[in-house]
Write a structure and sequence with these properties.
It is found in: Membrane. The protein is mainly beta. It is built from 3 helices and 19 strands. Strand 18 and strand 19 form a beta hairpin.
Length: 315
């Protein structure tokens, strides 16, 4: 295949000889011919140096950072224009003539850990001539999320006196990857009373058992303070104040009476009393208003009633 950019002209010397060797004399200039071949130039499309780019970026990087430069050249030395396809959320941009791939906004691995797009290189003089390459951007995990407690524990309870092997199973979650999330650690607050009354026993990387550490606690709703930490360095943690109901139970393990409410929280009886008292006050105020209005606007006797009163005539 001839390539104008590699060699634009070829000069060939052709010679003709008999199949049977000459008996005398030698071949002269008339037995040779010089042939010049000129290669016509044809506009060729751009060529990219790689068919696939793999790029790694830490999540949360400052927008505007150059994460890769797409290299291409045009055999005819024409300028190349670059564009992106497949970046539907517009997280990236590329220099029209430089081929520099940049982030437009901070990337979140928890939202998407990999982005794949296509870079199109177009001939600057003929837009029908182009080349393309795939770019895959991998987002490196950063420990930017604290573990959280998951689940509803408001309807659960512990029996007092303590039932053997009875515990609340607490579940947690960390949105970061295993490198930073890993095993989640539960730990009670450093308080003598808390550590005397309660116990945390790990089950696996994300679950733990919360149980009584003493045989008996008075029936009540207790606030159990503990912390959940991830296994990164330095770790991220979340403080939890979990309401836990402790109540006496029947032989089936069901609460026999309602637990004592938290201090400062109104009971049902007190709430009903407050409501009835409010209605009574409103009723008294309305009665006073109606009475005052009736005295201020006395009704005039109607004509009809005056006509019906018989006349007193002296005979």
């Amino acid at each position: 295949v001839l390539d104008f950019e590699r060699e634009s002209e070829y000069i060939l010397v052709l010679s003709a000889q008999n199949q049977v060797p000459l008996l005398r004399g030698r071949y002269g200039p008339l037995s040779t011919a010089t042939v010049s071949i000129y290669v016509d130039d044809v506009n060729e499309g751009p060529v990219l140096s790689q068919s696939h780019y793999e790029v790694t970026v830490r999540e949360g990087e400052e927008p505007g950072r150059v994460i890769a430069t797409i290299r291409g050249y045009d055999p005819d030395s024409h300028p190349i224009r670059y564009s992106l396809q497949g970046d539907t959320k517009k997280y990236f941009s590329i220099g029209k003539y430089s081929g520099e791939l940049k982030t437009v906004q901070a990337l979140d691995r928890e939202e998407n850990s990999t982005y794949t797009m296509e870079v199109i290189a177009v001939d600057g003089r003929n837009s029908s001539l182009s080349a393309s390459t795939l770019v895959t951007v991998h987002i490196l995990d950063v420990n930017d999320n604290s573990p959280v407690l998951v689940g509803d524990y408001s309807w659960k309870y512990l029996c007092t006196p303590q039932w053997e092997d009875q515990a609340l199973v607490l579940a947690s979650r960390d949105s970061d990857g295993p490198q930073h999330g890993g095993r989640l650690n539960f730990s009670l607050r450093s308080d003598a009373t808390v550590r005397r009354n309660w116990k945390l026993t790990p089950i696996n990387d994300t679950h733990t058992n919360l149980s009584l550490n003493i045989p008996y606690l008075p029936p009540e709703v207790y606030m159990v303070p503990f912390t959940i930490s991830d296994s990164s360095s330095p770790p991220r943690s979340t403080f939890i104040n979990l309401p836990v109901t402790v109540c006496p139970c029947n032989i089936r393990g069901n609460c026999k009476i309602a637990a004592k409410p938290l201090q400062g929280m109104p009971t049902i009886q007190s709430a009903v009393g407050i409501l009835l008292g409010t209605f009574a006050v409103i009723g008294i105020i309305l009665i006073v208003i109606f009475v005052r209005l009736s005295y201020q606007n006395p009704k005039e006797p109607s004509k009809t009633s005056q006509e019906r009163v018989p006349l007193k005539i002296s005979i």
